TrEMBL record:
Organism this protein belongs to: Desulfurella amilsii
Sequence ranges assigned to domain GHMP kinase C-terminal in this UniProt record: 206-258
GO annotation (BP), single: isopentenyl diphosphate biosynthetic process, methylerythritol 4-phosphate pathway
GO MF annotation list: 4-(cytidine 5'-diphospho)-2-C-methyl-D-erythritol kinase activity; ATP binding
The entry's keywords: ATP-binding, Isoprene biosynthesis, Kinase, Nucleotide-binding, Transferase
Domain GHMP kinase N-terminal: 61-138
Keyword flag Transferase: yes
Protein family: Belongs to the GHMP kinase family. IspE subfamily.
Residue positions binding ATP: 89-99
Keyword Endoplasmic reticulum belongs to the record: no
Name of this protein: 4-diphosphocytidyl-2-C-methyl-D-erythritol kinase
Length: 285
């Protein structure tokens, strides 16, 4: 089986407080974008993962851990080889590893005739990472608590054009959160955010609390955001970074690309709103 493992961007991210378990409570609206890794899963005598990134070819790989948990929970005595063609850059705030874990779960459960319930997949995904549950749902969703509360939007976002730019450095999610100075927030209304998005589109809600932390650690990323903003009149850090994205038409995208030095990664893409039901239809019917 071959599946696309999509990247994500946070259209808005508020960090509310630190929890006793060390995680943070958040309110975020996250959407998938049409940019993906390719995962191929084949029967095998031993469970293994192989990617085009040598540093990911080990048992700590989230897709490997996802498959291991799947076979443990399903009690199926079998194994697979997982080949991943990585395109989503690492430590970019695009959720590549979490996406690989979630799509591996979805693919395996389909391959083995939906032996696990969707609730069990959610439980496994949360053990792997707080971004993972989001990827078990299609398109765009409101995400709360530490990431396990996922609420699908009742409308589709337009497939607006986006440019994603990543500098050479990556950002550790743990470092971004640990350096954040929390601001007391008691006025973030989830449904108001959703309503603003529905009426005004992504530009009406774009905000990321982690920018204050990441920009202190890496001033070059703040500079990158500012330069992109000057062209597109919008820009936002992707999750915990280091990527920055902007909604931009073709002429603006070309201006942004032309200003980039060697070493920058960029990807032009769109919001994903038509992922289809191939991996999801069984759970939504």
């Amino acid at each position: 089986m071959i599946v696309k493992s999509y990247a994500k961007i946070n259209l808005v991210l508020y960090v509310l407080n630190k929890r006793p378990d060390g995680y943070h409570d958040i309110i975020s609206i996250i959407t998938k974008v049409d940019f993906f890794d390719l995962i191929e899963i084949k029967p095998s005598g031993i469970l293994s993962v192989l990617t085009n990134k040598p540093e990911l070819n080990n048992n700590s790989n989230l897709a490997f851990r996802s498959a291991k948990k799947f076979f443990e929970e399903s009690r199926i005595k079998d194994a697979v080889k997982i080949d991943i063609q990585k395109h989503i850059p690492l430590e970019a705030g695009l959720g590549g590893g979490s996406s690989n874990a979630a799509y591996t779960l979805l693919a395996l459960n389909k391959m083995y005739d939906y032996v696990l319930s969707f609730d069990k997949l959610l439980d496994i995904s949360l053990q792997l990472g707080s971004d993972c549950p989001f990827f078990l749902y299609e398109n765009a969703n409101l995400v709360c608590s530490k990431g396990e509360q996922v609420y699908p939007l009742d409308f589709l976002l337009k497939p607006q054009p986006i440019i994603i730019v990543k500098p050479e450095m990556g950002v550790s999610t743990k470092l971004a959160y640990s350096n954040l100075i929390l601001t007391k927030r008691n006025n973030i209304n989830k449904m108001t955010l959703v309503d603003r998005l529905k009426k005004g589109g992504p530009l009406a809600i774009m905000h990321n609390d982690l920018e204050s932390s990441v920009f202190k650690l890496y001033p070059a990323i703040e500079y990158l955001k500012r330069k992109i903003y000057e062209i597109a009149q919008n820009a936002l850090l992707c999750g915990s970074g280091s990527s920055v994205f902007a909604f931009a038409e073709n002429c603006e995208r070309q201006q942004i690309i032309s200003m980039l030095d060697d070493g920058y990664f960029f990807k032009t893409t769109t919001i994903l709103n038509n992922e289809g039901r191939d991996l999801y239809g069984h759970y939504r019917s």
